[in-house]
């Protein structure tokens, strides 16, 4: 069983990953943020470091997926490899922050990787408005995120919606998080878990 949580920066992926792994007693797999050697440089100079950052994430998530399938364990994963290739890298390219040469190189590597990996059994998409994202980003206080631009978050949200509308690799659950606080409200977390349970029962 492989459940993956997708969503924009600040949508609550890491928080929900922690809560679900505790509830179901599944193994959590987190996005490599704290040890990422490129994030701080990227937010200070996106054009210079965009390719390096995306290659790092692609490599990290590819290894993560291989390890998940190899382990045979029940896993909940924070963010997917598909988001990098369908949202973040194309967004950087369209904004002129990644060259066409680098993007083509990146995408050909992604296509090669997708030949040997399988999609998650269930994809959970956390849909959030830009104000909600900004609020959540501010609350967690990561220094390198202070310089994230509003237009950057807005563009990412638009790409997330387009990607989700065309997602057909497996089962999909969309959760609107603008009016949910599953970290602090038990009833909100129970609501999310009930919806996930309904989807999971159809996987067995």
**Radius of gyration, in angstroms, nearest whole number:** 16 Å
**What is the level 1 CATH name?**
Alpha Beta
- CATH homologous superfamily placement: P-loop containing nucleotide triphosphate hydrolases
Please report the total strand number as a whole number.
5
Major sheet summary line: 5 strands, parallel
CATH architecture designation: 3-Layer(aba) Sandwich
Our count of domains comes out at 1
Taken in chain order, the helices and strands follow as EHEHHEHHEHHEH
The CATH topology label is: Rossmann fold
Characterise this structure:
This protein is an alpha/beta fold and 204 residues long. It has a single domain, classed as 3-Layer(aba) Sandwich (Rossmann fold), CATH 3.40.50.300. The chain is built from eight helices and five strands. The protein has helices spanning 13-24, 39-44, 46-71, 81-94, 100-114, 130-140, 150-165, 186-200, and strands spanning 2-7, 27-29, 75-78, 122-127, 171-176. Strands 2-3-1-4-5 form a five-stranded parallel β-sheet, with helices on both faces. Helix 4 (81-94) packs antiparallel against helix 5. The longest helix is centred in the N-terminal third of the chain and has 26 residues, at 46-71. The mean pLDDT is 91.
């Amino acid at each position: 069983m492989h459940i993956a949580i997708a969503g924009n920066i600040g949508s609550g992926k890491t928080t929900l990953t922690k809560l679900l792994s505790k509830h179901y007693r599944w193994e959590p797999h987190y996005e490599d943020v704290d040890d990422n050697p490129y994030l701080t440089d990227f937010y200070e100079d996106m054009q210079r470091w965009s390719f390096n950052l995306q290659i790092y994430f692609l490599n990290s998530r590819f290894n993560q997926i291989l390890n998940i399938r190899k382990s045979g364990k029940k896993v909940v994963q924070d963010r997917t490899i598909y988001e990098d290739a369908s949202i973040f890298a194309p967004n950087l390219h369209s904004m002129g922050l990644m060259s066409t040469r680098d993007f083509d190189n990146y995408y050909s590597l992604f296509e090669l990787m997708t030949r040997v990996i399988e999609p998650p059994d269930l994809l959970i998409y956390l849909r959030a408005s830009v104000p909600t994202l900004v609020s959540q980003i501010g609350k967690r206080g990561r220094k390198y995120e202070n310089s994230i631009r509003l237009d950057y978050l807005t563009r990412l949200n638009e790409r997330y919606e387009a990607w989700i509308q065309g997602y057909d690799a497996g089962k999909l659950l969309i959760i609107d998080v603008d009016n949910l606080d599953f970290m602090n409200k038990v009833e909100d977390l129970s609501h999310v878990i009930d919806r996930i349970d309904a989807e999971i029962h159809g996987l067995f």
